[in-house]
């Protein structure tokens, strides 16, 4: 009799969490055990069901015909360390399943850590709000704002990429090598002066073999002027 009463209690708890149908229902919750992490925002339960965390989006690592996105491996490894083999509580919003038949859930560790928020706040995920599952949207927005302001995770990477783009867009400074583009010669000066990779100062007069290919670093009016500046004629 006592064993039967315990059975009824467990059954009642399950029905309360998942509804009378035994399936997850809107705004319900359930305890679960995570078998493996698929990528940063998706994992598989020991029951075989896949779970997609609500409101967050980590960079792709396993999407078919899609390259691994920057910071994707870091996010995936972070979730694996955080979730693999862990007992969690799944809480549902308005829609318990997505179109791929994955559970949509807010995920809580046994110590109360709200995993969805933690991924965003630590810089491993951006927010991705899809109505009607918006119960925690404001919390996620605040977490992302903090991560961005503190340059955490993928936000630090994006800032580095932005700085690199700015540097790339800056006009190149002229340097003393043969790749510097020619500028228009000063009036009356047609002899090109160039310093090669060995540091040799060489001048080229119009019509000489290397004149057209040479980028002038300085110009001279006469060969005498070039020689006085320490330049010599080409050896051939």
Automatic annotation (TrEMBL):
It comes from the Bacteria. The keyword tRNA processing does not apply. Its EC number is 3.1.31.1. The keyword Nuclease applies. SMART domains: SNc. Residues 28-157 form the TNase-like domain. Residues 1-22 form the signal peptide. Pfam families: SNase. It is an enzyme of class 3 (hydrolase). One of its GO terms (molecular function) is 3' overhang single-stranded DNA endodeoxyribonuclease activity. Residues 160-199 are annotated as: Disordered. Keywords: Endonuclease, Hydrolase, Nuclease, Signal. InterPro entries: SNase_OB-fold_sf (IPR035437), Staphylococal_nuclease_OB-fold (IPR016071). This is Putative nuclease. It comes from Brevibacillus brevis (strain 47 / JCM 6285 / NBRC 100599).
